[in-house]
Write a structure and sequence with these properties.
17 helices, about 280 residues, 2 domains
Length: about 280
């Protein structure tokens, strides 16, 4: 969590106030506000939205979106037609979780990174932009981090409250040799922030994985984790790509077209909002 996120979450009223002020400011110009989670979201959605009619505003994470949307609808009923929010689905589709009001939209897959990495022509992008033959590389990478993906789902469903961000990251686990359940548990339990969490049992987790093994990989896999392992693999092949994944994500965004976006459920949801509000939101 960055300092901006931490500040916003400590002051949820400031999130709502900031969102409301943006809506108030843009009402005079007849613009609709689209709240998104972060930098990558802002970059890709700005490609497909009509910026003459829409203002894309990043809120640094889904908790701020949920807090802000809840509060903003209390302020003035007319605001609800002046904005919508796009939230990473995370595990929401697996859990069958929906949101009120209906103007919180979800990505088709787990998150925006999966949105980019699982599109049909991704390997042609690797070849075009990096001159890389990376056939089956994405599928292999998803398999390599599968245990970590299931462990995050387990943590979510059981509401255990484990933090993965400091020690249980793809990069740190990979340096230990492999992304095994043993190494994941060791990393989680060595983090002082997790000291009050319920202990994790390997047998129970393996049973959980067996129970949820049919879950779609696009919904299970954290796209940021996948970006990290893909970059690691490419660097091992001597393709020098910066470790923060910015170069890779930028190239994928550059090659993600409006025609591809039109095939998504998210696009159709935005079309529904267009019709309902009679505001031209999307580029033709």
């Amino acid at each position: 969590m960055n300092s901006i996120q931490a500040s916003l979450l400590k002051n949820p009223q400031s999130v709502a106030a900031d969102m409301a002020n943006n809506i108030r400011r843009l009402i005079a110009t007849n613009k609709k506000v689209v709240f998104v989670e972060g930098v990558i979201d802002e970059k890709i959605y700005s490609k497909f939205l009509n910026l003459d009619n829409v203002f894309v505003y990043k809120l640094y994470g889904y908790p701020n979106i949920l807090i802000g949307v809840k509060e903003i609808n209390r302020l003035k009923a007319t605001y609800k037609d002046r904005y919508f929010a796009i939230k990473d689905a995370d595990f929401d589709r697996i859990l069958g979780k929906g949101y009120e009001p209906e103007n919180i939209l979800l990505t088709d897959y787990h998150d925006i990174e999966m949105f980019l990495l699982c599109e049909e022509e991704v390997y042609s992008v690797f070849e075009k932009e990096f001159n890389i033959q990376f056939a089956s590389g994405i599928e292999n990478a998803i398999e390599e981090i599968k245990v970590l993906s299931f462990l995050k789902l387990y943590n979510c469903i059981k509401e255990l409250g484990y933090s993965f961000k400091k020690k249980c990251t793809v990069r740190k686990l990979y340096k230990k040799g492999d992304i095994s359940l043993y190494n994941c548990l060791l990393a989680l339990q060595s983090d002082k922030r997790n000291c009050d969490c319920k202990s994790l049992e390997e047998g129970e987790i393996f049973s959980f994985i067996e129970e949820f093994k049919e879950v779609a990989k696009e919904q299970l896999t954290n796209g940021h984790d996948l970006m990290q392992i893909v970059v690691i693999k490419l660097n091992e092949l001597n393709y020098k790509i910066n470790d923060d994944c910015t170069l890779l994500s930028d190239k994928l965004i550059d090659n993600y077209t409006l025609d591809k976006f039109k095939k998504t459920k998210l696009y159709l949801k935005i079309v529904e909002i267009e019709k309902k509000t009679q505001c031209k939101i999307l580029l033709s």
